């Protein structure tokens, strides 16, 4: 019988989010391995009792539960916490059948540094342990917004066109290739009912670009935005000091 996976997509930004983009990429790889996937957009699901019950039933039938969530203020967003509360309650009430289920998580941070996700991944691990789920590990994604704009396979194809000495090879192509290989290895292990080895996940523990480039890139949008309001010479104003 085919294995089943429940994909819990926890971003309010829906299809435009990194949580959706990266999570869906894993889903497509699981589907290649003939794993049946049921997807739930958590924001819509939890507002609807029938959908919530459908989600619980799907978790009950699943071998793998995949959470993909944004990072908000170094934490899981309110709806992701509410989701964990609802799932914990049904586990604690003994409403789910006895079955081996793995939990795998993707945490998507806006900042460059992967380690902003460390605390929340520990929380997902505790959530698994408290609820008879086997903690299979998690992906600590930094600069996740990149993948909200471009899905990983599309992004890698774009990077293939770049000359070898283009600076983007180092700060985008190389990190994305590492992420892709960790994702593929994670899917391979999870599909076989295994946890993902820590050594594999630790390959994501690097900072993809110098902080100055990130700040420069982020700041470069301000003058353009200010221009629309004729305020490009006012960006350094400090009206509160007057
Ligand atoms: C309310 C709020 C709080 C955030 N807090 C953090 C944070 O503490 N650290 C961080 O790296 N990014 C933070 N971000 C950025 C998001 O984690 C980032 O944009 C991420 O890619 C969002 O995931 P999504 O595209 O799946 O919604 C925050 C964003 C919002 C809206």
Brief summary of the model shown:
With 242 residues, the chain is of the alpha/beta class.
Question: Overview of this structure, please?
Answer:
With 242 residues, this protein is α/β, with parallel strands linked by helices. The protein folds into two domains: 4-209, Flavodoxin domain (Rossmann fold, 3-Layer(aba) Sandwich); 212-242, no CATH class. The protein is 49% helix and 14% strand. The protein is built from eleven helices and five strands; from the N terminus they run βαβααβαβαβαααααα. The protein has helices at residues 18-32, 42-45, 49-61, 78-92, 118-130, 145-149, 152-160, 168-191, 198-201, 211-219, 221-227, and strands spanning 4-9, 36-41, 64-70, 102-108, 134-141. A five-stranded parallel sheet has the order 2-1-3-4-5, with helices on both faces. Helix 7 packs across helix 8. The N and C termini lie far apart (72 Å). 33% of the residues are buried. Flavin mononucleotide (FMN) binds at residues 11, 13, 17-19, 70-74, 108-111, 116, 144-145, 148.
